[in-house]
Amino acid sequence: PNMIRLGDIRLRAQRAWKELHKKTGSAIYRTRFTDIRDSFPTDYPGHPSGEIGMWNTARDKLNQALDQKRASNSRWRATMKEADDLYRKVTKDMNSQVQDAAWVKLMYTAYLRDDWKGILAVFKEADTFWNSKAAKDQAKAQPTIAQRRKPERGRASYWKAEALYRLERWDEVIKALDGWHVEYDSLKSSGPYYVGALGHLVFAYIGKGDIPNADKYFTRILKADAKYRLLPKITFALAKHFNDQAREIDSERKKARIALNGSVDDPLGGARTKLRMVEKRESQTVGFLVTRESRLVKLKELVATYEKKQKEGLPQNIRDKDYNAAKK
């Protein structure tokens, strides 16, 4: 009991140093606060706040890492690693009310490091745990954990889809979010998850070239949150698709015009040129046939005259004269 009371006093001192740091921005106060925070689990191992204290310490470490990242401080990754180590300890605590949330935090920190495969690895690990007999028995024995688990699994599925989206594995994004908005409708007002999942579906369908479905989910985003931060990016992606299509069609149209021996500026001129060429070839063919037909008629006349003269037995020179007359 005395250690618990001493721990309580220590926690009040920790909160006081933290408050002073917030008000003054002093690094000295922050150091005093973090020293107490980091040593507390070791100094007071049996204190009831140990579990939530580890969660709070991890959260503080994460916020510190984010501040360092924004300030281009190279230590941000090391600080985030400290937060990760603490979150992982929480995932092993079967009595913790934030055990499932810790899995989601590990996916979030992987996201902050642009570690898409890391997100998928953590998701697989968490999903294996949630489907285990131990986790199911835990949920039955502790209703509050069961109640919190469903939305946390929804958030975890969101981060999985985020990683797949970043890796441009479009079919897997669609599969991961199939029915997600119905199953996790409770997340509609929970941060970026609900609308963000709609955004992932839009980009996945654009990636597959399925614009009707992309447009369907785009419309749902407009209804859900007309101020969604990625709306400009989505709008640009859809506009780019239609512009690319328009350029392809225009290119094919130009090729078709040129194929007609016309020009880009006078497409019908090409058609007229084509027609004139055809007419000219047909006219030449008809003229050729008429000429040949006329010569054939003359030839037949010549043959008839020659045969007639032969039968009459006229001198050869007369027959030749008639032949020459027919030939002309």
Give an account of the 3D structure.
- The structure is a single chain.
- With 328 residues, the chain is mainly alpha-helical.
- Helices cover 81% and strands 0% of the residues.
- It has 15 helices and no strands.
- It has helices at 2-24, 27-43, 50-70, 76-91, 99-112, 116-130, 133-141, 143-166, 170-176, 180-183, 193-208, 211-224, 231-259, 267-312, 316-327.
- Helix 2 (27-43) runs antiparallel to helix 3 (50-70), helix 3 packs antiparallel against helix 4 and helix 11 (193-208) runs parallel beside helix 13.
Provide the helix percentage: over 70%
Q: Counting H and I runs of at least 4 residues, what is the number of helices? A: 15
What is the assembly state of the chains in this entry?
single chain
C-alpha geometry: elongated
Q: Which structural class is indicated by helix and strand composition?
A: mainly alpha
Structural Rg: 43 Å
Low-confidence stretches: none
Tell me the total number of β-strands. 0
The proportion of residues in beta strands is: under 5%
The overall pLDDT average reads 80
* Largest sheet: number of strands, sense, barrel closure: none
Secondary-structure element pattern, one letter each: HHHHHHHHHHHHHHH
